[in-house]
Amino acid sequence: MLGGVETRSVSPVFVGRADELAVLTDALTRAAGPEPQALLIGGEAGVGKTRLTEEFLAEAERRGAVVAVGGCVEIGAEGLPFAPFSAALRSLRRQLPEQLTAAAAGQEDELARILPELGETPRGPHDEESTARLFELTVRLLERLAADRTVVIVLEDLHWSDTSTRHLLAYLLRTLSTGRLVVVATYRADDIHRRHPLRPLLAELDRLRSVQRIELSRFNRAEVRRQLAGILAAPPEEALVETVFDRSDGNAFFVEELVACRESGCRTGLTESLRDLLLVRVEVLPDAAQRVVRIVAEGGSTVEHELLLAVAQLPEDALIEALRAAVGANILLASADRDGYRFRHSLVREAVSDDLLPGERARVNRRYAQAMEADENLVCSSERTIRLASYWYYANDPAKALPAALAASVTARRRHAYSEQLRLLDRAIDLWESAPAEVRAELRPADYTEVYPPCGCDPETTPLRRLDLLAEATVAARFGGERDRALKITKMALRVLEDEDDPLRSAWFWTERSKLVASLGRGDGWAELSTAQELVQGLPPSHVHAEVLSRAAGWGMIHNPGLDNIAAAERAVEYARMVGAQEVELHSRITLGSLLADAGDVAGGLALMEEVKERAAELGLAMLSGRVHINLTSQLENNGRSREAVELAEAGVQLVGASRLLDSEAWVRGNMAESLYSLGRWDEATEAAQRTLRVSQSAAPRGMASARLSYLALARGDVAGAAEWLAAAHQHFGTHDAQPQHRIPMYRLAVGLAALEGRITDVRTEVAEAIGAGFPLGHHRYAWPLLLAAASAEADARGLPAAAAGHEEAVRTLRRAMADLAAPVPLWAAHADFVRAELLRAEDRDTPADWTAVEAAIEPLDRPYLLARARHRVAESLLATGGDREHAAALVRAAHATAEQLGSLRLRDDLALLARRGRLQLTAPDEGAAPAPTGPDTDPVESLGLTSRERDVLRLVAAGHSNRQIAEELFISPKTASVHVSNILAKLGVAGRGEAAALAHRLRLFAPVPS
């Protein structure tokens, strides 16, 4: 290594940037709080980002912080995947070896994708959650390292960052919540043109309040004077200050270069071009040094000494002399940690590289590639394949560049760097035709591809096809989140297949299109899946055939469950077993189990899924285990076995959480939230739903969680909250793929909201749409609560003038709907009884016996909220018919206690009003105390605290009158009527006239209007 030979062109005095440094050091102080900090430093090339960062890091080290720096590496047109994070973690591993080992314990194989020193990078699994899983583990690793010490991570040169690095940084800054961690990232602002890939990330990070952005401006004249004084170690002449300031325009790096040129005697070579300014100091170097500088410029951000020795083809003494000249002139710097060399500033490297002749560039890149092929130990193993691919590509040698690009794509895939894999596959596809036929003939699918199922041909003799690359690129784009690009690739592949007789491969691409169309919100994917089915029809069993059948059965299970889908799932299981497609078989068996349970064979369906659960655990198939826990918990809830569902969900969360399957965890937690809601554990249900929103990576689980939070708000009487969460659920679910399991709960929530707000016409509209769309097999779990909400709304609205028209038809419609709906287990039979009793109440024909039967059916079911509602109705009916007051009082007290415990303000208030009307005590009377009065019921309106005039106004509000109509009826002014209405709303605790009218009719405050 070389040291101590630089000429001074850098000021030893830190000039300006006091405010910016204060922001950074303040972040360091807050991080010790602990409060994680994130900062972005932007500025044009040469403005002083690196110097500011160095000053900050020196201060951080003085305060005892652990500092790690990683830079984005530019190699050709693409960066190394995760390069700055890999470098920073490598530095942390050197400084904190034991702590990092402990923090990574149990996850070494996954984290090795970013830090290869942790172990062998596994081949899989690969799925759409792979990247998020890796990111989550990385964030947790950093949080653990920063738990009891301040850690500062600097990521330099984001303008060269690869897509995977940008995605990881965004994830880190979005999710970082604990630890004494400071993350600083720098970028060159003048490079960020309108289409630069960093631009969307900067816009996203600007929206995060946790991220501070620092923009560095150029120096003013006074600051340039101070910089010159530091470099020259003496006050500069004013003429020099003026000249340098005018030429540099305040750019700190150009100030240094101008002084260096002046000091080295090359002033006469200066031109008006800043690029020439950067080159002029290179041109005064000895010839050998100039040659070495040109070689280093093509090698990347840093070039290893041994690699440079091989490429330069100079005796080592001659190379060292040339390097000494370049380092002494402050053109190159020795890199102590990498035993290599880099340019002092990237602007100089870019200028030197741009100055190379085309043939010269190709020759230098060829030498790099040949040297690396001759000795694989010249560079770090984690960088070797990707750098080799870049060197051969820029050497303009398709015969070498094609297999190198393919090998690099495999490396990127193993690191879950799917965006980089896609770029490399794109390059391979572009090189395909220009590569010699004999080279293509030697390539084998088994070496470079893995997504298209084995075709049954001999892997030793079957050559790689361009279609194989298109299949690989399709999945890489999908896993990398570039679904539009994936869709275009499938279209390209299918166009090629139009001229070929290959129905299996065509079916595979149509199946991929089905997934993509659904995920992009451009349809439900059935048309594409139907095409795939037609293509495989009549063909012998194969992996693709089994996959198509499995997908079709799964689609049917979600969208249109029925007996036809059971047959499709059985065929999928059979075909998968015949061809040895084990994972496809297990997925198909999950689908089959769910369909059997929906069709009534609950024991058989659950047993089949239990078998899959055990088999998936034996094989270590985490994704499959996640799916079987999702489906099993759903089926348990479907059959009223909520406690078992919660227990299984808790085990499932542990299992998928350990594998960081975030979407699988979100689905399991969403199902858990539903079961906890059923069991009356509403606070736990809220937490489970909120956690679902936090961990979910896709829209559907977020929609499910939002819907559950809307249910909770509705049951608690929070109308505004219920409406807000319902709108969020609609946004997440979208309109392109109306699955019954999403659609029916949305109708249920809309009915509940409309009923609370007194919009009975909207209730009927929603119910009519829901019934018209149908309640498919197995969806009684969603349909019965919908019918119950609608029947309750009709009963509460009985006598409301706005409800009179269409009331009888609405009741008949609900009776027809419930007659066609299955009630296979006691829970849904109890719902049927509840709906039946509510419809009788809607016709004023209900009796205490009807409601007592409902209560008896619900009592053993572990459904506290439903039971409290039933007891409310029993007590109300007993009081209305002069029944057993003591029994009514006991029911009201029990239901009121449940409502208090659940936090259901609406039910609690209804019960309190009922108790006041019936002169019942809400607390159990003390033994020996005088019994409560047993005279006639108090005036229900007086029990609400309303005056006689407010009673008259409320009666007219309930009849649908406006303020002007009320004023005319009562001979008061409209303004007075408005004041009375406002007072009534406040006393009733409702938000509007509709809610007041609905409450009045629900509590039967006035005699019903005859139909």
Order of the strands making up the biggest sheet:
2-5-6-1-7
* Uncertain spans: 1-8, 267-272, 927-936
Query: What's the total helix number?
Result: 50
The Cα radius of gyration reads: 36 Å
How would you describe this structure in keywords?
mainly alpha, 1011 residues, single chain
SSE layout:
Layout: H1 18-31, E1 37-43, H2 49-62, E2 66-71, E3 74-75, E4 78-79, H3 83-95, H4 97-103, H5 108-111, H6 130-145, E5 151-156, H7 163-175, E6 181-188, H8 198-206, E7 211-215, H9 221-232, H10 238-248, H11 252-263, H12 274-283, H13 287-299, E8 303-304, H14 305-312, H15 316-328, E9 332-335, E10 340-343, H16 346-354, H17 358-374, H18 381-394, H19 398-414, H20 418-431, H21 437-442, H22 445-448, H23 466-479, H24 483-497, H25 503-519, H26 526-536, H27 543-559, H28 563-579, H29 582-598, H30 602-619, H31 622-638, H32 642-658, H33 662-678, H34 682-695, H35 699-716, H36 719-733, H37 740-756, H38 760-773, H39 780-796, H40 801-804, H41 807-819, H42 826-842, H43 848-858, H44 864-880, H45 885-902, H46 905-918, H47 948-958, H48 963-970, H49 974-988, H50 993-1002
Parallel strand pairs: 1-6, 1-7, 2-5, 5-6
Antiparallel strand pairs: 3-4, 8-10, 9-10
Helix pairs in contact: 1-2, 3-4, 6-7, 7-8, 9-10, 9-11, 10-11, 11-12, 12-16, 13-15, 13-16, 14-17, 17-18, 18-19, 19-20, 20-23, 23-24, 24-25, 25-26, 25-27, 26-27, 27-28, 27-29, 28-29, 29-30, 29-31, 30-31, 31-32, 31-33, 32-33, 33-34, 33-35, 34-35, 35-36, 35-37, 36-37, 37-38, 37-39, 38-39, 39-41, ...
